[in-house]
Write a sequence for this structure.
């Protein structure tokens, strides 16, 4: 396989992969963060799904006193919508697009690729997936929000105007307020996107009920005969 732009944890099925999930972690984590979760989804062996868990590059994060850490973009204020790091977001968009192209070059059609992400990672998959010029299987954004929302209407790709989107969020999230996620959901729906929304009484995390919902959603997106 061609070398990806980003280093990544890669989980492969026994035979040739028939589909792919590219899953981005949150701020300060790395590609190993969701690695233990993947076997619980029942996708790799059963459906021939390859899972790519890239590591974000290290960069200084303003809200954390400029500390160098894995981050998809800088966060400059507690209000994420103020002073957004457009340059960092678009840099990560290009890196994620490169990973998608690598999977396509290696035989997985874009309509068999799901973009998934948690927190910052979810922001990047929403931003990138809705602008990607070929139709994708779905976008999964957990405990996250839509960055650079005011640019989407102009930059959105027609190819993904009907892409299935699942958003899930904790109602007690102290990191990414649930109201920000709800605003993102509403904005997407106003633009005509299909958003499958779930909320849970939890903080900035995943819970067992959420795991069941996202597993079912992913199986519908990547199973045989999926739409």
């Amino acid at each position: 396989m061609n070398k990806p732009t980003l280093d990544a944890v890669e989980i492969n099925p026994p035979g040739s992969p028939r589909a792919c999930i590219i899953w981005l972690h949150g701020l300060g984590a790395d590609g190993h963060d969701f690695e233990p979760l993947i076997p619980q989804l029942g996708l790799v062996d059963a459906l021939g799904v390859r899972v790519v868990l890239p590591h974000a590059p290290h960069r200084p994060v303003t809200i954390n006193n400029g500390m160098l850490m894995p981050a998809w973009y800088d966060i400059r204020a507690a209000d994420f919508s103020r002073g957004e790091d457009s340059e960092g977001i678009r840099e990560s968009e290009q890196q994620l697009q490169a990973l998608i192209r690598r999977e396509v070059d290696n035989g997985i059609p874009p309509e068999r690729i799901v973009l998934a992400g948690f927190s910052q990672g979810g922001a990047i998959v929403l931003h990138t997936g809705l602008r990607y010029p070929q139709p994708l299987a779905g976008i999964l954004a957990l405990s996250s929000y839509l960055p650079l929302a005011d640019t989407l209407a102009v930059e959105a790709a027609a190819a993904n105007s009907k892409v299935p989107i699942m958003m899930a969020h904790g109602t007690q999230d102290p990191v990414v307020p649930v109201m920000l996620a709800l605003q993102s959901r509403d904005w997407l729906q106003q633009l005509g996107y299909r958003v499958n929304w779930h909320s849970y009484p939890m903080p900035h995390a995943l819970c067992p009920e959420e795991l069941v919902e996202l597993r079912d959603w992913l199986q519908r997106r990547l199973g045989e005969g999926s739409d």
The first strand starts at residue 8 and ends at 11. Residues 86-105 form the longest helix (20 residues). Helices lie at 44-47, 86-105, 120-129, 152-155, 178-190, 208-222. The chain has a mean pLDDT of 95.
